[in-house]
Hints:
By secondary structure, this protein is of the alpha+beta class. Helix content is 33%, strand content 23%. The longest helix is centred in the middle third of the chain and has 18 residues, at 194-211.
Amino acid sequence: NCPAAAVADHQIVAGYDDLDAARELGRRADRITFEFENAPESTLAALAESVPVRPRPEVLEICRHRVREKRFLHEHGFPIGRHAAISGPDDLARKLDSLGLAILKRALGGYDGKGQVRIDRGSDPNAAWTAIGAPTSVDGVESAVLEQFVPFKREVSVIVARGADDRTAVFPVFQNDHTGGILDLTRMPAEIPPQRAAEACELALAITRALDVVGLLTVELFDDGHRFLVNELAPRPHNSGHVTIEAATTCQFEQHVRALCDLPLGCPDLVRPGAMANLLGDCWGTDGPHVVEALAVSEVRLHLYGKTAARAGRKMGHLTAVGATTSEAMGRVLRARDAFSDS
Ligand code: AMP
């Protein structure tokens, strides 16, 4: 009687925009979800004709489009940084001076620091627009956003699971370090006072309910030490949550399946403090990665994503470690990554 079991029986391999294959998949499956944000709207609509798609496709439409996402958050009174929606280089030229140091981001399709560029008063708007790929507006919605640079103290993320019955479970807060716009390190629990962690969780829960998410919602937050600003939302399992496999009672992937299949949510509590270090293609030396040396570090696990070509900046896998404290887990995962990529 578990719908998840039925999903495992079928495999349909098709292009993301193959609507016939989508309808066939919809007829065979009990639930549909995604862990990839670029599924076309028409594909999700075709699936939704015959099977519940969770989170509902409208959630994805909001979360994957930076302008729509900002509008949603603003209209619901959630805290966000100063920003302006931008429709093209002329619009950018008009608004550039109002924000000072800022980041221009394309609204759709940018990820891992791609499709964004730092910009300041006096920068060349045409060059900045070209640098983000000169995105065109669709349905009258601006195709980029200019965000004032937030001088945050730390970045955290909160992952909420919510069932169709409105039950929720929230993982302990994750603390994240990015390098060049790409997630580099995560530790769990975040090194912030319990009261502030509770505040971050309350904010994430309120956003999850306002969006009516069934499944997982990841809320990325900037923390200036006093208050949180929402950076972005991801309605799916998230890179910062990978460490839950080792560090939490129920991992984010199981929690997602439980939520979408109307099963009771698992306990999200910490088992042991944990840390995660991403492995980019840059960690592959000329003689390949040093797996044996990395795994020799106590309580370390290696996860590889099966990608064949290791390119600079490409996420190839990650390492996790647990320990008696967050800093012990961090020390271990960093030692393991050094050993992995030592040439
Ligand atoms: P994003 O893809 O929007 O999450 O951006 C990737 C990373 O770039 C963030 O996690 C931050 O480290 C940094 N970043 C993005 N937007 C801003 C901002 N407005 N102010 C400061 N740093 C930012």
